[in-house]
Specification:
single chain; alpha/beta; Rossmann fold; 2 domains; eight-stranded mixed beta sheet
Length: 316
């Protein structure tokens, strides 16, 4: 994500890359040479925050150091875009939310990509319009060739990457679910397996979500981090229609027919022009509200923790 965000910053006329840091200095220098040849490379994150003569920081480091680095950037009056998950513990997340609320002159954003994709915004609008009635059930299927890429990296370390595939890539899916439905967490059961890795790879969840009136909405989620290809499906079954996202496309199902809703391709997927960097620059320059504030980290963390606790109980 550091590479992706840096390339997007370099390609946006509103921003200029002012400095780089990575614990692997050579990696930082290679990135610098690729996107901003005259920018300095620093020996620590704090040096970068203090000396880069910057207005904002983009943090793409392992989860376990996010909290300290967000706080350090804030001490140097920098706006912050931090990659997900926000932090490794609930107390750290609450502390960072409190910090962001106390420093109203700074903007703090999380890199939850789906909040910026047109298909998710359209899905949210369709649900909130009320024209399809109440949500009656939710089903999500997520698969990715993830386990095959993490051996020997921090993502295979449970002390750094809490929740494995569920906590890392799966956090985007959980946030997207909360974002579009507005539903809260109810009771559920779960199973999880590490499939030979040190962190969770496959997690299956069944249970209940709740609306503001405590109406029960059944749901089923599948997270498969040892697949051979990327696949993402989200079904929001409403009283009058099925609202469906399938691999970066949006569909509405009615009367046993499924209609593709055409949206600009450049606004809908992983190469979208609408992404956390675009959104962050919009917020910092005052042309848009913050679509992904730090507050959205808490329900994702709570659900991830509850799923892992339920899976551990079931597995035992």
């Amino acid at each position: 994500m550091g590479l992706a965000h840096a390339e997007r910053l370099a390609g946006d006329s509103r921003s200029e890359l002012a400095g780089f840091f990575d614990v692997d200095r050579e990696a930082a220098m290679q990135l610098r040479d690729r996107v901003a040849a005259v920018a300095p490379v620093f020996d620590s994150a704090e040096d970068a925050f203090a000396q880069a003569n910057a207005d904002a920081a983009v943090i793409c480091t392992p989860t376990s150091v996010h909290a300290a680095q967000v706080r350090c950037a804030a001490r140097h009056d920098l706006h912050v875009l931090c990659e997900k998950p926000l932090a490794a513990t609930r107390d750290e997340i609450i502390g960072l939310i409190d910090l962001s609320q106390s420093l109203s002159y700074l903007h703090f954003m999380l890199g939850y990509q789906r909040r910026f994709w047109a298909i998710y915004r359209r899905l949210k609008e369709e649900i909130e319009s009320g024209q399809w009635g109440n949500i009656v059930s939710v089903t999500a299927v997520n698969s990715e060739r993830w386990q095959q890429t993490i051996a020997g990296t921090w993502r295979d370390d449970p002390d750094i990457n809490y929740g494995g595939y569920l906590g890392d890539a799966g956090s985007h899916r959980l946030d997207g679910l909360f974002y579009v439905t507005g539903l809260g967490l109810g009771n559920f059961s779960a199973r999880s397996t590490k499939a030979g890795s040190n962190v969770e790879i496959v997690t299956l969840v069944n249970g209940e979500l709740l609306d503001d009136g405590d109406r029960v909405v059944p749901f089923s989620l599948s997270f498969m981090g040892n697949a051979n290809s990327f696949h993402e499906e989200l079904f929001i079954h409403c009283e009058k229609a099925d609202l469906i996202i399938r691999d970066f496309q949006f569909f509405i199902g009615r009367d046993n027919n499924v209609e593709l809703i055409n949206l600009p391709a450049e606004h809908s997927g992983r190469e979208s022009t609408d992404n956390p960097i675009t959104g962050f620059l919009d917020v910092v320059t005052g042309v848009a509200d913050n679509m992904s504030p730090l507050e959205c980290a808490l329900p994702v963390f709570d659900m991830t923790t509850a799923i892992l606790d339920a899976a551990e109980e079931q597995n035992s």
